[in-house]
Design goal:
The complex is a heterodimer of chains A (443) and B (273).
Chain A (H helix, E strand, L loop, with lengths): L1 H26 L40 H13 L4 H4 L6 E2 L6 E4 L5 E7 L4 E6 L4 E6 L15 E4 L8 E6 L6 E5 L5 E5 L11 E4 L4 E7 L4 E6 L4 E6 L10 E3 L9 E7 L4 E6 L2 E2 L9 E2 L3 E6 L10 E4 L8 E7 L4 E6 L4 E6 L10 E4 L8 E7 L4 E6 L4 E6 L10 E4 L17 E3 L4 E5 L1
Antiparallel strand pairs in A: 3-4, 4-5, 5-6, 7-8, 8-9, 9-10, 11-12, 12-13, 13-14, 15-16, 16-19, 17-18, 19-20, 21-22, 22-23, 23-24, 25-26, 26-27, 27-28, 29-30
Chain B lengths: L5 E5 L10 E3 L13 E4 L4 E6 L4 E6 L10 E3 L16 E2 L6 E4 L4 E5 L11 E4 L21 E3 L4 E6 L7 E6 L10 E4 L11 E3 L4 E6 L3 E6 L10 E3 L1 H5 L7 E3 L4 E6 L4 E6 L5
Antiparallel strand pairs in B: 1-2, 3-4, 4-5, 5-6, 7-8, 8-9, 9-10, 11-12, 12-13, 13-14, 15-16, 16-17, 17-18, 19-20, 20-21
The chains are: A mainly beta (443), B mainly beta (273).
């Protein structure tokens, strides 16, 4: 009887443990797995890279700090005690080493480089530079603090989409067609119809020069403006251009004052073009011509071409510009909004500003939730503007005339609250800091 | 690229871990297309290229935030030229001397501590060197990585003459002018790819890009059409490309960043240490 009772207790204990284990497993389930599968929208993920336990510490060396030269010398001494390379592998054949990586450093959440708001369809479009996707959310989405993330309505993602390290976004104000420009490995603008979903080929594409960044469209003239970071140029195409169609005109040359250009805004009414510059300059054909200039916004006639100098410039320490990125112009008030990446701010200038001026408004501070903002888009219908935050996988919305340390009216998060992104963007090199035992990873 | 940065992560960092520090912003002078980076443990400094401004930047080893570089090599005397790409820079770990491949199919060398508009102390290039990089056009054509083996006092230079398969040229690290290489590793058996990555292990192994998206290992003493001693079939195993390589000697690890996956993989590879 006692044995039977003990047996029952054991069985009960095993069942409870199994249930708790299953429950615990559910709790630690990666957030992406809790996306409703019925939407078929996909979720934050990269590719399958098997993660094995880190066993490298099994062969730790003494912890004292040594320069790499010391270590090289030690290794050399060690080598002298060993059989030669050829004795170890003297067959002359190649040995395949198929141990999987012991660690993988990556970001499994989106890294949003750009935003476009579509008041017509009540949607917000975000460009993911990390997982290579374009995500479309409801404009009214607002991620509660206790929710890990908001799932997009639609996700355009997959090898057929040709989306890679895309940056600039534009959405057609009438039909909702989405334009997205690639900045490095794709060198093209891809255009998707409004209802595109999943792994679909773009409705059309346009080849662009290497290192494209921003897109702006003059709807009146049906012209599309593309900024190219380096060699710096503004290429102007027909809005409906596709394939290898050549630009209608190109603004380019040493007199243009274009220096590592990024954001662009078009003023159709006053026929002006606004371009911002990070200041990095060189004539790639002439050695030793490199210069570092302060960041600026340069203004040109909308039909400028060739080696045309700017009409005026906004430049100087008062401007607070620090890697200015996307820009947007309010045609009614002539307010020029600038996503100020490293300044963690949105700067608003008057379009007529010139020289070393203080912005008329600065949205910045702990309440704003701005974190490396690189995208900005205006919603004139609902009197709001949206920001893409590269640093924390989010987009934030503010009243159109917001100023100072303001709380966003809504926030769309694609990662848990407080998440800080790796901000990876085409990681092509690495160095090992032996003193601090750190990886140094440039974008 | 949208947001250039130099981000530091603990060695054991895995996914979704924020950097412990990050260099970014106007003051840093960094820009996109940093396809090579080095940590100089002798001087506790970070070395990186600034392609859009024909410059080489040297930061303090613990630099963080918007910290400016300690030294900037830039100007007409430097002969630094990038046609679409000046995307890699290298150094001699035993001295700190800086080596730079240029679009003129040559290598310029600056002594440690160089700053401002300085001329290189020597240039290696000319027909006898067999140095030939991919011809660069506007916006394309990256220069290859070059590496110094400080133990054997050698310089390893990838080369790829038009219409030929890529190879590796081995020079004395102090070679200058139109000097012939000591050895040439080239031929169909080598499986050398015209990659963007290379490192030298303490045993004199050249760890570099091999055909098929793999990492191959050759020796600085190899000569001729020699197959790699080891191969890690990275793309086959992970579906990711190999874009860079560095080594952690102490822990016998090989780090492989890949641009197309925004990922840094670490392989345990004791054979080469």
């Amino acid at each position: 009887m006692q044995l039977r009772s003990k047996g029952r207790k054991v069985i009960l204990a095993v069942m409870i443990a199994a249930a708790m284990g299953f429950f615990s497993w559910s709790l630690i389930e990666p957030p992406e797995l809790s996306v409703p599968q019925s939407t078929g929208l996909g979720y934050p993920q990269l590719v399958s890279v098997k993660q094995l336990p880190d066993f490298a510490d099994m062969c730790e060396w003494p912890a004292e700090d040594k320069s790499s030269i010391t270590r090289l010398e030690e290794a050399r001494q060690f080598e002298l005690q060993q059989a030669s390379v050829y004795a170890q592998n003297g067959s002359g054949t190649t040995v395949d080493v198929t141990r999987p990586p012991v660690r993988t450093l990556r970001d499994t959440y989106p890294i949003y480089s750009s935003v476009a708001v579509d008041p017509n369809f009540d949607e917000v479009i975000l460009q993911d530079n990390n997982l290579w996707a374009t995500a479309i959310f409801k404009r009214t989405d607002n991620t509660p603090p206790n929710v890990a993330f908001t799932a997009p309505q639609r996700l355009i993602k997959g090898s057929d989409t040709d989306i890679q390290f895309n940056n600039g976004l534009y959405v057609d104000p009438k039909i909702g067609e989405i334009y997205s420009i690639e900045s490095d490995t794709g060198d093209k603008i891809v255009m998707f119809s409004h209802d595109s979903l999943g792994n679909v080929a773009p409705a059309r594409h346009l080849d662009t020069p290497h290192r494209g960044y921003g897109i702006a469209v003059d709807e009146e003239r049906q012209e599309m403006f593309v900024t190219v970071e380096y060699p710096p140029q503004v290429a102007v195409y027909r809005k409906q251009a596709s394939g290898d169609e050549k630009p209608l005109r190109v603004l380019m040359g040493d007199n243009t004052g274009l220096h590592a250009i990024h954001g662009i805004a078009v003023d159709s009414k006053n026929k002006l073009l606004y371009i911002n510059n990070w200041g990095n300059f060189s004539n790639f054909k002439v050695p030793g011509t490199g210069k570092f200039n302060p960041p600026s916004i340069s203004v040109y006639p909308i039909d400028a071409k060739g080696d045309t100098p700017p009409i005026r410039k906004i430049q100087g320490v008062k401007t607070q510009m620090n890697w200015p990125s996307a820009m947007a112009l309010n045609p009614d008030t002539q307010d020029l909004y600038v996503a100020n990446d490293v300044g963690n701010s949105i700067l608003v200038f008057k379009a007529t500003d010139q020289g070393d001026v203080t912005p008329t408004r600065v949205i910045k501070g702990a309440k704003t939730a701005l974190f490396n903002p690189t995208g900005v888009s205006l919603d004139m219908k609902n009197r709001e503007f949206w920001v893409a935050n590269l640093g924390n996988s989010s987009a934030t919305a503010y009243p159109l005339m917001a100023n100072g340390d303001v709380t966003p009216v809504r926030i769309i998060r694609s990662a848990p609250l407080g998440y800080k992104s790796t901000k990876f963007g085409k990681t092509e090199a690495v160095a090992y800091d032996t003193k601090r035992e750190e990886y140094l990873v440039p974008n | 690229m949208n947001h250039p940065q130099i981000a530091a992560f603990p060695r054991l960092a895995k996914e979704n871990q924020a950097p412990t520090r990050s260099l970014q912003g106007q003051n840093t002078l960094i820009s996109r297309t940093m396809h090579d980076i080095h940590y100089d443990s002798l001087h506790d400094e970070i070395l990186v290229n600034s392609p859009l401004t024909q410059a080489i930047l040297v930061f303090d080893g613990g630099a963080n935030g918007e910290e400016a570089p300690k030294r900037v090599i830039q100007g007409s005397k430097t002969q630094i030229l990038g046609v679409g790409a000046m995307d890699k820079v290298s150094f001699d770990p035993s001295t700190g001397d800086i080596y730079l491949a240029t679009a003129r199919h040559n290598i310029v060398v600056f002594p440690y501590g160089s700053n401002g508009d300085v001329a290189p102390v020597r240039t290696l290039g000319g027909p006898d060197t067999l140095i030939r990089f991919i011809d660069q056009t506007v916006g394309s054509g990256n220069t290859p990585p070059i590496r110094v083996d400080p133990i054997n006092n050698l310089l390893v230079v990838p080369t790829r003459p038009p219409g030929q398969i890529p190879g590796l040229l081995i020079f004395d690290k102090n070679a200058s002018g139109n000097t012939k290489p000591l050895r040439v590793i080239r031929g169909p058996k080598t499986q050398i790819a015209g990659g963007q990555q290379m490192a030298i292990s303490p045993k004199g192994y050249i760890v570099g890009g091999a055909t098929g998206g793999a990492i191959g290992v050759w020796s600085v003493f190899d000569d001729g059409d020699i197959p790699p001693k080891w191969r890690i079939p990275v793309r086959q195993m992970t579906q990711l490309n190999v874009n860079g390589i560095d080594l952690n000697h102490r822990d016998k690890e090989l780090m492989v960043p890949t641009g197309n996956g925004n990922t840094v993989m670490t392989f345990y590879f004791p054979e080469i240490f």
